[in-house]
């Protein structure tokens, strides 16, 4: 008996529409996040992440509607990140049907937000998203914002330790050096964070070759997030799971008992 | 009719939609009479053990669950909604130990594994007398928790293993509970919900 590795496709959503589409299937509506999430669900995704890159408040209410529609059709965990800065935001998302929320910049600005959310809703709903980049910082990695373009001067490991102490339930570890390169996850970063983190680590950024996924697990990741390799149809989720299974990792075979 | 007990913040919508997949009418309510009289009551988990108990007491949820038990009406606890059925928990609220409902004896304890919370799809060793898992004995279910009950109770006891065995599901004549989230466990979870609902 053992826990299965989670494979998590990530969809960027703007004003209620998916920005980076899935290119490998004939979709009725290539921009509908719920339809895309459904496809990934059918392909064996263990969880779905929506990253809301909307800037306007009107766009935010659209996102809530997307979450509601997802909860109506999707019976696997849903994480929503982007623009969350208060317990009210979290409450609205959970009420709409999100299972977890991921916070990033707002927690850097006001770390108490972590305590507030975990005390109100439990640490299991709270994912801290870290955009780490190699630097001269003491651990060799610092925290950045705005897609890696702005340095915070905060050491990545120091920030992760603080976030765990304050009550996050999970770490979404994005490497800004490997993000979008498809050159593989940053294994050194994963190993460093694993050494100090008792909470689950989701590796993110850089997945390109099928062997990258097993390497991230060997380095200490608990779950694997990817976007473009799935969206562009380079690999199917089932390809990744088959490869991991062959290498001795535990994976869940999705929908064994048919569709509901 | 199935009532989903609404007593605080959390993702109730997915549970509502999942139970609506059964043939039963589903209501989300915090009303005493509605909750007591429903054919089936679902008690979802909200936050941590202590905050969950406090929120439950505010709407007399303890009395609702116990009254239903006396009237032999079925109740299903989910996640922390399972944990609060026990006497107490290792999980403190501001350093204070909060009493559970004590419908089942024993204490909810912290899991002992290198990585906590236990998060993701895991297997369940199903009790051979289980009705909840009928036809879905070999499936995985979605867990997300740091605490669990370990000692067997009266009825069917199904176990999961994460840094040691713990109760994944318990089934007594009226009160049943699952530590995992059936509403988040894909087709297998919906099948489990159907099994419970068909016994109402």
From TrEMBL, chain A:
<dbReference type="InterPro" id="IPR004651">
    <property type="entry name" value="HisF"/>
</dbReference>
<dbReference type="InterPro" id="IPR050064">
    <property type="entry name" value="IGPS_HisA/HisF"/>
</dbReference>
<comment type="similarity">
    <text>Belongs to the HisA/HisF family.</text>
</comment>
<feature type="active site">
    <location>
        <position position="12"/>
    </location>
</feature>
<dbReference type="GO" id="GO:0000107">
    <property type="term" value="F:imidazoleglycerol-phosphate synthase activity"/>
</dbReference>
<keyword id="KW-0456">Lyase</keyword>
<comment type="function">
    <text>IGPS catalyzes the conversion of PRFAR and glutamine to IGP, AICAR and glutamate. The HisF subunit catalyzes the cyclization activity that produces IGP and AICAR from PRFAR using the ammonia provided by the HisH subunit.</text>
</comment>
<feature type="active site">
    <location>
        <position position="131"/>
    </location>
</feature>
<keyword id="KW-0368">Histidine biosynthesis</keyword>
<dbReference type="InterPro" id="IPR011060">
    <property type="entry name" value="RibuloseP-bd_barrel"/>
</dbReference>
<keyword id="KW-0028">Amino-acid biosynthesis</keyword>
<dbReference type="InterPro" id="IPR013785">
    <property type="entry name" value="Aldolase_TIM"/>
</dbReference>
<dbReference type="Pfam" id="PF00977">
    <property type="entry name" value="His_biosynth"/>
</dbReference>
<comment type="pathway">
    <text>Amino-acid biosynthesis; L-histidine biosynthesis; L-histidine from 5-phospho-alpha-D-ribose 1-diphosphate: step 5/9.</text>
</comment>
<dbReference type="GO" id="GO:0000105">
    <property type="term" value="P:L-histidine biosynthetic process"/>
</dbReference>
<comment type="subunit">
    <text>Heterodimer of HisH and HisF.</text>
</comment>
<dbReference type="GO" id="GO:0005737">
    <property type="term" value="C:cytoplasm"/>
</dbReference>
<keyword id="KW-0963">Cytoplasm</keyword>
<protein>
    <recommendedName>
        <fullName>Imidazole glycerol phosphate synthase subunit HisF</fullName>
        <ecNumber>4.3.2.10</ecNumber>
    </recommendedName>
</protein>
<dbReference type="InterPro" id="IPR006062">
    <property type="entry name" value="His_biosynth"/>
</dbReference>
<dbReference type="GO" id="GO:0016829">
    <property type="term" value="F:lyase activity"/>
</dbReference>
């Amino acid at each position: 008996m053992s826990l299965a590795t989670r494979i998590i496709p990530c969809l960027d959503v703007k004003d209620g529409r998916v920005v980076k589409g899935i290119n490998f299937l004939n979709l009725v509506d290539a921009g509908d996040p719920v339809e895309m999430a459904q496809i990934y669900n059918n392909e064996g995704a263990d969880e779905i992440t929506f990253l809301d890159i909307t800037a306007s408040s009107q766009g935010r209410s659209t996102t809530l509607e997307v979450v509601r529609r997802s909860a109506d059709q999707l019976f696997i965990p849903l994480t929503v990140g982007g623009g969350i800065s208060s317990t009210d935001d979290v409450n609205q998302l959970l009420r709409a049907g999100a299972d977890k929320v991921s916070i990033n910049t707002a927690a850097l600005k006001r770390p108490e937000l972590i305590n507030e959310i975990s005390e109100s809703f439990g640490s299991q709903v709270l994912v801290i998203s870290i955009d780490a980049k190699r630097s001269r910082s003491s651990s060799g990695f610092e925290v950045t914002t705005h897609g890696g373009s702005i340095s915070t001067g905060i050491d990545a490991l120091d920030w992760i330790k603080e976030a765990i102490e304050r009550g996050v339930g999970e770490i979404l570890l994005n490497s800004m050096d490997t993000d979008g390169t498809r050159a593989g996850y940053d294994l050194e970063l994963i190993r460093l964070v694993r050494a100090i983190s008792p909470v689950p680590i989701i590796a993110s950024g850089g997945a390109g070759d099928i062997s990258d996924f097993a390497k991230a697990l060997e380095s200490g990741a608990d779950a694997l997030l990817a976007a473009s390799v799935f969206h562009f149809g380079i690999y199917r989720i089932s390809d990744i799971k088959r490869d991991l299974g062959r290498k001795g990792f535990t994976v869940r075979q999705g929908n064994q008992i048919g569709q509901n | 009719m199935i009532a989903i007990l609404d007593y605080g913040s959390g993702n109730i919508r997915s549970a509502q939609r999942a139970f609506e997949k059964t043939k039963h009418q589903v209501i989300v309510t915090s009303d005493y009479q509605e909750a007591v009289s429903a054919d089936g009551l679902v008690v979802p988990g909200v936050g941590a053990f202590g905050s969950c108990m406090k929120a439950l007491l505010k709407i007399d949820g303890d009395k609702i669950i116990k009254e239903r038990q006396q009237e032999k009406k079925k109740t299903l606890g989910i996640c922390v909604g399972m944990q609060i059925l026990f006497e107490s928990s290792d999980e403190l609220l501001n350093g204070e130990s909060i009493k559970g409902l004590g419908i089942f004896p024993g204490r909810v304890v912290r899991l002992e594994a290198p990585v906590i919370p236990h998060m993701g799809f895991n297997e369940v060793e199903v009790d051979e007398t289980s009705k909840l898992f009928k036809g879905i004995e070999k499936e995985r279910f979605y867990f997300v928790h740091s605490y669990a009950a370990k000692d067997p109770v009266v009825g069917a006891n199904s176990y999961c293993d994460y840094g040691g065995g713990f109760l994944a599901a318990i089934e007594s004549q009226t009160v049943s509970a699952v530590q995992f989230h059936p509403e988040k466990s894909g087709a297998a979870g919906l099948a489990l919900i159907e099994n419970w609902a068909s016994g109402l």
